[in-house]
Amino acid sequence: MVEVDLHLHTTFSDGTLSPTNLLEMCVRKGLRVICISDHDTTNGLEETFAAGSAYPELVIIPGIELSTDVPGSEIHILGYFIDYLNNDLQQILSKFREGREDRAIGMVRKLNEMGLEISWERVKEIAGDASIGRPHIAQAIVEKGYVQYPKDAFDKYIGREGPAYVERMKLTPSDAVKMLVKYGGIPVMAHPTYSEAKSDREGVKSLREILGELKDVGLMGMEVYYGDYTEDQIAYLKNLSDEFDLIPCGGSDYHASGNPGEPEPGSVGPPLSSYNALVEARDRLH
């Protein structure tokens, strides 16, 4: 039975469930430890912890997911136990979200030039108070009937190789790891291997080399038990995590996106021993 899910998204980034509704779902699924890890924002954590007061048996880890840039691709870095009340951190994250908005405006412009009637006003309505991301644009494309599922919008239009893709300024993976450590976070590499269920999700190239570099600057874990990973992928990544002495983490990466086959909370995740190792790492860091 899965009791831990360390990768979840809410309406404060590109998920479609509020923190309150997501917590209710996690409790129904029998989870004991969860992490809300929205993209470039911790703004959902206040509601998360308020809602969590109704479930004293549920452990909630404050987290975040950062996108970082490598040539021709990107690597996502999760940060667990981040000091989300730190004002300096919040100023940095605010700049990241401004970059997301500028990129989204550029994508909508490209889609319009291609003849897709997607309005920036509608994308903002879909995002609400969230950190704007490509899934909000994908939802607008679905609404207009240009594709059936959000995944199709990535594949056809806004994925990395898509005609409406626009790059944005990102940290390097090393800078993200250092930043997370500076603000009390335990840095963990997210989804390092290709995922069928996630659009625009290739495997990290030169994984061994990158893990070595990131370990040197403070990386403490990597996702092993993730999403729709096969048993072979999990075994391969578990061996790598052992080789580099990294905590084997993971989770569903649940967005409630409406894509077929999306893994739900409680379907995949690391053992409780991984949570215990994260707590020990946090205590050493502090």
Essential attributes:
single chain; 286 residues; alpha/beta; seven-stranded mixed beta sheet; 10 helices; 7 strands; 42% helix
Could you write a compact summary of the structure shown?
By secondary structure, the protein is α/β, with parallel strands linked by helices.
How many β-strand stretches?
7
Element order: H for helix, E for strand: EHEHEEHHHHHEHEHEH
Number of helices: 10
| Largest β-sheet summary | 7 strands, mixed
Query: What are the low-pLDDT stretches, counting only 5+ consecutive residues below 50?
Result: none
Distance between the termini: 32 Å
Mean pLDDT: 94
Rounded Rg: 18 Å
Question: What share of the residues does DSSP label as strand, in percent?
Answer: 15-25%
State the helical fraction: 40-55%
Decide which structural class fits the backbone.
alpha/beta
| Strand adjacency order, main sheet | 1-2-3-4-5-6-7
Global outline: globular
Commentary on this structure:
This protein has 286 residues and is an alpha/beta fold. Helix content is 42%, strand content 15%. Strand 1 (4-8), helix 1 and strand 2 form a beta-alpha-beta unit. Helix 4 packs across helix 5 and helix 5 (134-143) packs across helix 6.
